Amino acid sequence: MAPVIIGFDRNYAPFEWQDDNGQPQGFFVDLGRAVVKNSGREAHYVTDTWPGLVGRLERGDIDILPMLVSKYRTERFQFSRPFYYLTHSLFAAPGQQGLTGIHDIAGHVVAVEKRSYAHDLLLESDFSITIFETEGTLEALQAVSDGHADLAMVTSAVGMFLLAKYELDLKSYGTPFWPVDYAFAMRKDRDDLAQWFNLSFAETLSEGHYNEIYLNWGTYLDPSTAWSSGNRISDQMAFAAFLIGAALAFAIGAFFWRHQRNFFWQTANFVASQRRGKIDGTDKIVDAGETTAKPQPGEPDGAKFTSSFPLRPEFLIKAERALAGRDHSEDCWEFALLKLAEYEDVSRLHGGKAAEHLVYKLANRLLAGSFKAYGYYGRGIFSVLSDRPILRLGRQALLDPVDLDEHDVGSSIQCGLSIVPAASVNLDGIAQQAETALAQCLTRRRTWLMYHADMVPDPMDAKIVRAFRRDEIEGLRAVYQPQIDLKSGCIIGLEALARWEHPEFGQVPPAKFIPLLEQAGLSDRVADKMLAEICAMVASLPPPWAHLTVSINFSVQDLSDPDMPSKFSRYFARYGVKPTQIIAELTETAFATDPETLKTALTLLQKKGMQISIDDFGTGFSSLSYLSSFPADEVKIDRHFVSRMLDSQKDRAIIRSTVKLAHDLGLFVVAEGAEDEATLAALIEEGCDRVQGYVIAKPMNRQDLGVFLSDYQPAAVHQPS
After folding, report:
1. Percentage of the chain surpassing pLDDT 70?
2. Membrane-spanning residues where (predicted)?
3. Which stretches within 413-553 are classed as H helix?
4. Is the model's pLDDT at 271 over the cut of 70?
5. pTM
6. In a 10 Å sphere around its CB, with 0-12 CB exposed, 13-18 middle and 19+ buried, how is residue 131 labelled?
7. pLDDT band of 257, cuts 50, 70, 90
8. Which sign does the torsion angle of CA 272, 277, 279, 281 carry?
9. Is 133 helix (H, G, I), strand (E, B) or coil?
10. What digits encode the pLDDT tens for the residues 570-623?
11. Are strands 476-485 and 16-18 parallel, antiparallel or unpaired?
């Protein structure tokens, strides 16, 4: 059989690089060598620049190349089982302003390695950037350091390693993004090669060689020991927490299953400490090969957490073997993920060894549970497969907080559970269900949750976010609902409302797409579109209606954008609109999100002459006395109170007190959702200033609005006697 040829990057440390003797070194290199050795096949190894390597793979000059997996690449290559994952980061000179994440790269010169994952995505994206192509990751960083580019977009771990090694005066900005699988790639026409490699790779994993290689490189892969500079990327669980807060539970589940292949940074330190036979002076981890240990001070009785405690790959293999050998007439088994909820806080505040103590104690607790399989995913997360209901085995004992008396700290435990049906032998879907349940525990602040189908979000959510990322927002438009003055009956303003009729999705209600875009940081797309359309509409109003104001809904993200005030000015100047004609609306709950930033932004807008409105008042937890510290001109009473005021004395009392307090603070009061004459009369009686609702008109497009305004006659408004 001909030797297999594997290619590696010359300078992609700490994962692969070429040493002074021209030989490839690194974590990925040793893993590739282990796979080949395990099969008894001969191999040759070559190094080159990354663009050169991709070209060699395409031509067939090399057989195998480790690379990040992407949709574009899967169309051209076939891949092995993923074995690691990396994120990307932005690197720029210290003191860079306004660079908080990938959404801020517009207008910059971005250095990126040719034919890299980031390069492919940037070429397909609609970012308004200038791409500065380089031959390697180091060259991309040096381009920024030398002033040829504003920032570099490279993989986080490699970027940080190279900064320290070459003492480059750069830093990373924002949260790492694009979590991507790493796998071995082969040409599409090499099925024989892929079959051989995948079989040998599976054997390498099952025999524990991956864990050994990972431990050998642990000190290089761990930023706390490998990087001498003060810059460190966020660890992988910090990144997962970011996704949980900004994305959906279903996405977090997918993240744990598909992208957590590196077992997190401190896994290596932790397991390595086991092999050394110690964790520190208080707890004793027994050496490899020992089965029991005498209790030590502060150590749980019967501690048996040996170096054989499985990491994720070994756990999955053992769990699937246990499922394959089960009696299918047995009751359903259970799969669980348990997380030390305060692991990151303890690690940050009290050090890594205190966090390792937490892991140690929970591990011993699991060892006492006689489970079918158990494993450690890293960063305080354990996995368990049980042939009995897990919580019935001792719910209190299993989920009780873990305390460290010597540090006076501890951590609660959160658990996501899923049922393993009697006929199931595959953990893919089961594990993802447990991960989804754990993600829900984190977001709901629950101790444990059993997975159920309602936890999975609508698949349309991801499509909506993707459409906005790609600027595929055909059919997004504004509709307008008139407001009348309750004393004169005259129309004095309009509220602009976003509506979206997508060619593929159909009618998508704002309550569906607006929250998704806010979570994804894309609400500015709606704001920009709406602001341009509304300013054009206002500029076209005929003279009799040139006095109308138009209210526009904004999110805190929109108004916290440092560029927002100048953006308003540009639109006003372009369309010849007066700032006094535009009212910025924010929901009441938005005022509690980032009060200082929001107060600054609103003050700037008010200085420009714009008005500020507090929308949906009554649905949050703040009060008018609290909100009086913010610049505001009007309060809009939420439609739920208005729609019930004729039948509910409580709702009517809320409206009455809101009107009085608002007037005392010098604010106008607008009532939303008035649908009949009786409600209109009641609002007049309670002293409301303005009203909008179906009793006047439904929201309408620009053309229908023109017809409505041309035909409108002020209604007779009957004041209470």
Report:
1. 80
2. 237-257
3. 428-444, 460-469, 510-520, 523-539
4. no
5. 0.46
6. middle
7. very low
8. negative
9. strand
10. 889 999 999 999 999 887 556 655 567 777 888 888 888 999 998 877 655 444
11. unpaired
pLDDT in tens, 93-149: 998 888 877 888 988 999 999 999 999 999 888 788 999 999 999 999 999 999 999
| β-sheet bridge partners, residue 85 | 181
Q: Sheet containing 11-12: which strands, arranged edge to edge?
A: 11-12, 16-18, 24-25
Q: In this structure, how many other beta carbons lie within 10 angstroms of the beta carbon of residue 276?
A: 11
Which secondary-structure segment (H or E) carries 327?
Answer: none
Residue 151's pLDDT is what? Answer: 95
Q: Which of 39, 57, 56 is nearest to 1 (CA)?
A: 39
Tokens of 31: 């893993």
Grouping H, G, I as helix, E, B as strand and the rest as coil, residue 318 is helix
Q: Residue 449 pLDDT > 50, yes or no?
A: yes
Going 57 to 60 to 62 to 65, the CA torsion angle's sign is: positive
What gap in Å lies between CA 390 and CA 394, rounded to an integer? 8
- In the chain, the amino acid numbered 341 is A
Residue 361's alpha-carbon distances to 372, 380, 501, in angstroms, are 19, 11, 55
pLDDT at 393: 55
Cα dihedral sign for 100, 105, 107, 113? positive
Strand 634-637 with 611-617, pairing: parallel
CA distance linking residue 210 with residue 435, whole number of Å? 23
What phi, psi does 544 have (nearest 5°)? -60, -20
CA distance 369 to 175: 38
3-state secondary structure labels for all residues of 367-435: HCCCCCEEEEEECCEEEEEECCCCHHHCHHHHHCCEEECCCCEEECEEEEEEEECCCCCCCHHHHHHHH
Tokens of 287: 């050496």
pLDDT tens for each residue of 294-319: 333 333 333 334 344 677 777 888 88
Is 190 exposed, middle or buried, given 0-12, 13-18 or 19+ CB atoms closer than 10 A?
Answer: middle
* Rounded Cα–Cα distance for residues 106 and 186 (Å): 35
- Which two tokens mark 641? 């109170």
- Which domains does the chain show, CATH number per domain? 237-455 (3.30.70.270), 461-711 (3.20.20.450)
Q: Which residues pair with 700 in a beta bridge?
A: 480
Task: Output the average pLDDT for the chain.
Answer: 79
Instruction: Specify which residues 402 forms β-bridges with.
Output: 411
Q: Is the pLDDT assigned to residue 199 strictly greater than 80?
A: yes
Packing angle, helices 265-275 and 209-216, rounded to 10: 100
Asked if residues 656 and 674 have their Cβ atoms less than 8 Å apart, the reply is no
Q: Which amino acid is at 160?
A: M
- Give the integer Cα–Cα distance in Å for 262 and 141: 24
Site of tokens 């004609």: 581
Q: Is 616 left (phi over 0), alpha (psi -120 to 50) or beta?
A: left
**Count of CB atoms situated within 10 Å of the CB of 230:** 7
Spatial CA neighbour of 53 closest among 88, 93, 6: 6
**Tokens at 252, concatenated:** 């977090």
CA 33 – CA 44 distance, rounded (Å): 10
Query: Helix count (H) and strand count (E) of the chain?
Result: 29, 28
How many other C-beta atoms lie within 10 A of the C-beta of residue 710? 10
Lookup: tokens for 692: 């909008």
Dihedral over alpha carbons 66, 214, 160, 176 (to 10 degrees): 80
Q: 335 near 427, Cβ under 8 Å?
A: yes
> Residue 235: which residues within 8 A CB-CB, separation 6 or more?
223, 264, 265, 266, 344, 379
Tracing tokens 């190279």 back to the chain, one arrives at 162
Contact between residue 391 and residue 399 where contact means Cβ atoms under 8 Å apart:
yes
Torsion of CA 430, 435, 437, 443, to 10 degrees: -170
